[in-house]
Amino acid sequence: NAGVTQTPKFQVLKTGQSMTLQCAQDMNHNSMYWYRQDPGMGLRLIYYSASEGTTDKGEVPNGYNVSRLNKREFSLRLESAAPSQTSVYFCASSADRGNSPLHFGNGTRLTVT
Amino acid sequence: AQSVTQPDIHITVSEGASLELRCNYSYGATPYLFWYVQSPGQGLQLLLKYFSGDTLVQGIKGFEAEFKRSQSSFNLRKPSVHWSDAAEYFCAVAGDSNYQLIWGAGTKLIIKP
What we know:
The complex is a heterodimer of chains A (about 110) and B (about 110).
Chain A: E1 4-7, E2 10-13, E3 19-25, E4 31-37, E5 43-49, E6 56-57, E7 64-68, E8 74-78, E9 87-94, E10 103-104, E11 108-112
Parallel strand pairs in A: 2-11
Antiparallel strand pairs in A: 1-3, 3-8, 4-5, 4-9, 5-6, 7-8, 9-10, 9-11
Chain B: E1 3-5, E2 10-14, E3 19-21, E4 24-26, E5 32-38, E6 44-50, E7 56-58, E8 64-68, E9 73-78, E10 87-94, E11 102-103, E12 107-112
Parallel strand pairs in B: 2-12
Antiparallel strand pairs in B: 1-4, 3-9, 5-6, 5-10, 7-8, 8-9, 10-11, 10-12
């Protein structure tokens, strides 16, 4: 009964380093999302994948890339981390479009120094 | 512009007291409305959703919300709060043809013993 699994849970990077956040869901959902959460700003969509093989930019895509590896997995890559990318990152999935409820992972807390 | 406003950043209520969290939205089309809850260190969990029909919707954990189209509101209520309800609550709106939810900034609920 895993739902949405994110790894790692915590990460500290130096400015300029790269890393990939991993996300997998076992609910056979079509759509997957990457959000960042910053205090007082709610959730902001970075990228989403409506279905396997497609990805689209969200509200704050700059500095990030994504890969929808297969139906289960959706990764987020920071090529050259910046302090402004310090945040909590959440992966989510849904059966279909925006009116389908989202299922969230437990988040990755990223600090860039 | 499409937006969701949660006017209260923090709300403090005594255990056993009633609760109402406010949510106002601005959305051009027929809205799909959601309330999510986030416990500390966790991802978000769906409390309830409104798509159509009865404007009073019931959710998990004893929560309910009422859709008022004339007031563009979707307020969350609970008759008697428990200490375990301490969390952050997010209101969100979506359309039926897109993948990008619009999120409020959240309301942090503090429970006084």
